[in-house]
Write a structure and sequence with these properties.
two-stranded antiparallel sheet; alpha+beta; 5-stranded antiparallel β-sheet; binds nickel (II) ion; 170 residues; globular; Peptide Deformylase
């Protein structure tokens, strides 16, 4: 297993759309194990392949407190969403130190393949629902800050550029 480097917003590679995975083989199983290790190490509750510069449709999620409920979702898609919406304060390993409110459907129905190559469906709400939607956004090239107002996005980019300049001077 290996720890992978996580891309940081505003890296343009975070905006690439990921391709579907045709079949589960050793390469995909290794990728899942490495992504899980990277997520637990960060630590975070979710990681999309896009964030480690692999543009294939896989995400890993573990929202459990004991960190013993790993979910690997291959080609995940949302097949139904509730009309009702909820606001949740989100963060992202690709945007460290930034947390902000995002409104999304409260419940979603998800279809995905697992590491055995079986396709299944489940309902997700609460933190899991937020996490699944956030990670699928990554596969489509979208970072959570793109749900914020343009004013907030402009301010955030200015702040990140300033941090970069300070790092260069240091
Ligand atoms: Ni994220």
């Amino acid at each position: 297993m290996a720890l992978l480097q996580i891309l940081r917003y505003p890296d343009p590679r975070l905006h690439k759309k990921a391709k579907r995975i045709a079949r589960v083989d050793d390469r995909i199983r290794t990728l899942a194990a490495d992504m899980a290790e990277t997520m637990y190490d960060a630590p975070g509750v979710g990681l999309a392949a896009t964030q480690i510069d692999v543009h294939e449709r896989m995400v890993v999620i573990d929202i459990s407190e004991e960190k013993n409920e790993l979910r690997v979702l291959i080609n995940p898609e949302i097949i139904a969403s509730s009309d009702e919406a909820s606001v949740y304060e989100e963060g992202c390993l690709s945007v460290p130190g930034v947390y902000d409110d995002v409104e999304r459907p409260s419940r979603v129905r998800v279809r995905a393949m697992n590491l055995e190559g079986e396709i299944g469906e489940f309902e997700a709400e609460g933190l899991l629902g937020v996490c699944v939607q956030h990670e699928i956004d990554h596969l489509n090239g979208k970072v959570f800050v793109q749900h914020l107002s343009m004013l907030k996005q402009t301010r955030l980019k200015a702040k990140l550029r300033k941090q970069e300049r300070e790092l260069e001077r240091a």
